[in-house]
Amino acid sequence: MKVLNLYFMNLKKLIMAKYSKESQHKVEKTMKEMKEGKLYSGKSHKKVTNPKQAVAIGLSEARAEGEKVPKKKAATKKDKNKK
């Protein structure tokens, strides 16, 4: 039983490494910019006030630079029908 628990603990550590250090720094930087009021969205150039949006911008910038970030989830048919 102890061996099985150790196996799952090691497996969790391997799975948890989804984001690279560089991408974490990029998200941290965008969060700071948002808190200072210096972060703007892309096309509309409106000021970003939502932390979730700031994280999304940071991850998007990290992807553009080729950092290790999971792929964006594809929209499902259910989501497409809502629009």
Distance between the first and last residues' Cα: 50 Å
Q: Tell me the number of strands.
A: 0
Specify the number of helices: 4
The residue-averaged pLDDT reads 80
Strand content: under 5%
Gyration radius over CA: 17 Å
Element string (H = helix, E = strand): HHHH
Give the fraction of residues assigned to helices.
55-70%
**Could you give a short account of the major beta sheet?**
none
Return residue spans where pLDDT drops below 50 for at least 5 consecutive residues.
none
- Give me the secondary-structure category: mainly alpha
What is the 3D shape? Answer: flat
Please provide a written account of the structure:
The model has no long low-confidence stretch (mean pLDDT 80). This protein has helices at 2-16, 21-36, 51-64, 77-82. Helix 2 crosses helix 3 (51-64). Helix content is 61%, strand content 0%. By secondary structure, the chain is mostly helical.
Name the features:
mainly alpha, 61% helix
Helix/strand layout:
Layout: H1 2-16, H2 21-36, H3 51-64, H4 77-82
What can be said about this structure in brief?
This protein has 83 residues and is mainly α. Helices cover 61% and strands 0% of the residues.
